[in-house]
Amino acid sequence: MSLIRKVAVLGSGVMGSGIAAHVANAGIPVLMLDMVPPEAAPGEDRSGKSFRNKFSLGGLANLKKLRPAPFYTPAALDLIEIGNFDDDLQRIAECDWVVEVVKEDLGVKQALFARVEPHLKPGAIISSNTSGLSVTGMLQGRGVAFRRSFLVTHFFNPVRYMKLLELVPGPDTEPGVLARMARFGE
Fold this sequence. Notes:
Blueprint: E1 7-10, H1 14-25, E2 30-34, H2 49-52, H3 54-65, E3 80-84, H4 85-88, E4 97-100, H5 106-116, E5 125-128, H6 135-138, H7 144-148, E6 150-155, E7 165-169, H8 175-185
Parallel strand pairs: 1-2, 1-4, 2-3, 4-5, 5-6
Antiparallel strand pairs: 6-7
């Protein structure tokens, strides 16, 4: 069993940023990625990294304002790196656990998993924070290694304060993956 030394959180909304903060609370570096905004506001410069990382930057900024605080200490914030799916997705190869936390839409999740699969490092766990979508549906088109390493890791909001983590294996999830995430969650 390998350790979880770095985590990628795919999505920087309320739940994604909350999961990123809680993982950082445990002292684990996090790579929080989100999509590149489809449009710029009038007069907004599209050329810079700050535009391309606008959603991730927004998720990070929201974490700083939340009450009750999502962080144990302000230093945990420094463990979160941000980026976007277009420029930084290959960096998930550095991560031992990749958790998807995007829009609750099966097609959106399937498309993201298709992009993620080639970058997963061997032995990495891949999960979704979904609360109601079909595990089998999310796995359509995915390879054997992906299916064996996949499960649902459903956190509740606010992540730091709701001491709940629902784990749902897929039909092909290896028992060791489920056990590893249960230990990690504890």
